Give the backbone structure.
Amino acid sequence: MNHNHPAPLRVYYQLINLRGNIFSWEYLQKGHEWWDIKVTRQIPTVPTEKQDEVILNIPEIEPQQKHALIFKVFESLTPGGTFIIHNNHDPKPVYHQLQAMHGDVFTWEYLQQGPQWWDIRVSRKHEEVK
């Protein structure tokens, strides 16, 4: 089978889609046949976190995957759905990219604005009835 990325990464993205990035992912062994990965649950403290709300712990994500993951999670939201971006700096460029890609279909609510952590709740707006 020819895949774009190794099998463990498919599991990694499935876990993120199901539960958000609330875990660390450490390779103990990388091989052609066997992969040993230590997965540890980590929950950042986020003010006003909703039960079962996806939290993307951005500093733990590979740099080249950060924006793509945020957009993928946003696109998977149903109207009224939310997730939290937990980051060590203001991710305002993501706001502008989301707006350019999707228009005014989301809200961007700062829950915490530094100095150490920025937490933003992104909500997909309900569709307007025409």
User: Anything to note?
Assistant: The longest strand covers residues 23-30. Residues 7-124 form one domain. Confidence is low (pLDDT under 50) at residues 1-5. The first helix runs from residue 7 to 19.
